[in-house]
Design brief:
Elements lengths: L1 H18 L12 E2 L10 H5 L14 H24 L2 H5 L4 H7 L2 H8 L2 H5 L7 H14 L9 E6 L2 E9 L5 E12 L2 E4 L2
Parallel strand pairs: 1-4
Antiparallel strand pairs: 2-3, 3-4, 4-5
Helix pairs in contact: 1-8
């Protein structure tokens, strides 16, 4: 039981760490990112303009395009979960955009994560993206025993989406949360933050 508590705390710390310093997708009042931080309702309008090209109208997405993109994204995330479970660093790295790789593997980010209590307790100092994958991403997914289902996606542009799921909170409430912000590049989905 103590081990399960440790893994849960580690997972929550990981999600919080990963989400720090990233740009957020458009958020609605009452909607949270997967890290559990509430959306700042005062910045909803500001958040809505992030990454949305001029002239893109989400209403231009057909039901067929929505359904097929949602299925593609679901398959991508299922595959990503298998990659992480298997500890396949090369495949995981290839699922990230170069901008996101640069962000999470920066010396500043790795040092900040290394200074967290959980890393200090385990005497882990992150120096590379591979360290980050091995000591943060894989253990966080190992502690997550439930299957994450994509409930819906929102188009940010014709090739960018945010994937959402619903989670049950400690109080038993269902809460909409962001899983990933993704971009389709050369017919492949990549994590952008």
């Amino acid at each position: 039981m103590e081990n399960k508590k440790f893994l849960l705390v580690f997972f929550l710390a990981f999600v919080t760490i990963v989400s720090c310093g990233t740009t957020s997708a458009p958020v609605e009042s009452g909607q949270n990112r997967i890290d559990g931080y509430p959306a700042d309702s005062t910045n909803i309008e500001e958040a809505a303009v992030i990454d949305e090209p001029r002239g893109f109208d989400p209403a231009s997405i057909t039901e067929e395009q929505y359904a097929s993109t949602r299925e593609e994204v679901r398959r991508f995330i299922d595959g990503l979960n298998r990659i992480i479970r298997d500890g396949n660093y090369a495949a995981w790295r290839s699922s990230l955009t170069q901008e996101y790789i640069d962000e999470i593997s920066s010396a500043e980010n790795l040092a900040r994560i290394s200074e967290t209590n959980i890393m200090k307790r385990r005497n882990i100092v992150l120096r590379t993206l591979n360290d980050y994958f091995t000591h943060v991403v894989v253990p966080a997914r190992a502690s997550e025993r439930i299957q994450i289902d994509i409930i819906e996606i929102e188009f940010l542009s014709s090739n960018r989406v945010t994937a959402f799921t619903n989670r049950i909170t400690n109080t038993g409430e269902e809460q909409r949360e962001i899983l990933y912000d993704l971009e389709e590049i050369d017919d492949a989905w990549k994590i952008i933050n």
